[in-house]
# Entry
Amino acid sequence: MLIVVTTVTVLGAAEWLATRSALHSVEKAVGEQTAIATRRLANSLESVASTNFPVEYQNRVREILELEPNVSRVDVYADIDGVLKPVQSSSTRGIRSLQDREVRSFHAHRPDTFMVTNSGETELFSTYPLRFKDGREGFVTLVSSLWVVNDILATHLRIRVFAVLGTLVCLVVAIVLVFRTTVYRSVRHLVDVMERFKSGDASVRADESLTGEFGELASHFNRTLQEIQRFSHHLKQQVEAATEELTSRNRELQHVNMKLYETQKRLGQAERLALVGQLTATFAHEIGSPLSAISTHLQILLEDPQLDPKVRNRLHLTNNQIDRVCSIVESLLMSTHRSTRRVTVELEEMVYKVFYLLEPTMESRQIAFSFRGSDGPFLVEGDPDQLQQLFLNLFNNSLDAIQGAGSFSVEIRREAPPEKNGEAYFHIDVRDSGIGISASRLDHIFEPFFTTKEFGKGSGLGLAVSKEIVRHHEGQISVVSSLGRGTCFTICLPEARRSGLKAEPTMTAREVQS
# Structure
């Protein structure tokens, strides 16, 4: 299409320029001939009067019309009393209107030749000023019709149209033949090779003996196919290696998760056993008091000398049974006695130690963890095992409260209120983005066997044990929560006194992070 449009444009422009050049030449020739005839006629009229034209004038006009077929009329004007009036005309169509350039030529006493287009017809005017024999001034105008020019223009237009159409047909036929014999076959071959390669035939190659530049294109195309094949093979190897590595990582993750599950299971059992121990101790303590009172009263009764022997024997028997019950209670108290080991514990290290235990679970569930602390180190006096159990319970609660991806954080702040006389406290905030706890349940979450989890997913002992651990460390624990906005547990523990307590050997925070 570009070739056809370009060819038609060039041919049309060339024909138009040729036609315009020919028209200009014809108009110039007609104008020169008309101007010569006008001058000759004006010279001959200078020997006659403006009101008396002899027969020789008519013969002269007739001769001009015969020799110049383009001349359509001859008009003679004279200045009569300051008004230009026609005094002679060869036209039978009547008087015509004067042209402005005729009047200017008369006043300037200078001949002029010009063209006028009126109603689609172009006429050539040739004006020549003169002075009649009687002294009056005037001018003669020969009007030539350019119908010949129009005829030439129409002829050239027809010739141009037929030439352009013929050239266009020949060009289209030639282009189609050349395209079919060279371009189409080569392109079709390359497209077929692409389709076969796309369908999975990696060994297919293009014919490099194609004509012209298509042979070079086929060579480049074959090299491209080789590169694609090589890249696909390399990519396949990388995918297989990545798949094998991912499978290995998944097996490792499953193994770690299984270990974590077993650890959490054992921790849950330890929580339940701890609570059972706490309940047993409470029960033993509550039973021991009334038993002691009963035993005391029996001793008083046995000291009465007037007591009947049979009654005394029965009281001895009852007292022996009460001693047996007291012995059982004492053994229960001894079995549930907690360790009172007190060492210096660094809270940040303890937090990271617990985080390290739960890290696989957080990574698998896409849960982010962050720690913030200032004015460290954070040293407290306490049992490291119990403190570890405390943070483990709170972290597990936070993980259970987060549905899907989320985050939880730990922040430790040191505060030294003036009213405490120099004693400082550490405030530990454990904050999560979980589902939160309703206000109606907040007052009961530290009660044993109370849980906000679904049935079968919680024992209700973790927070009760945590509160007991905080109480044994002379601290306090509180909670702030609302549905849909997460939960924050705040623990307040006193700072360790600088009394030379031996620190518990443990991993540093940097080692835990590594």
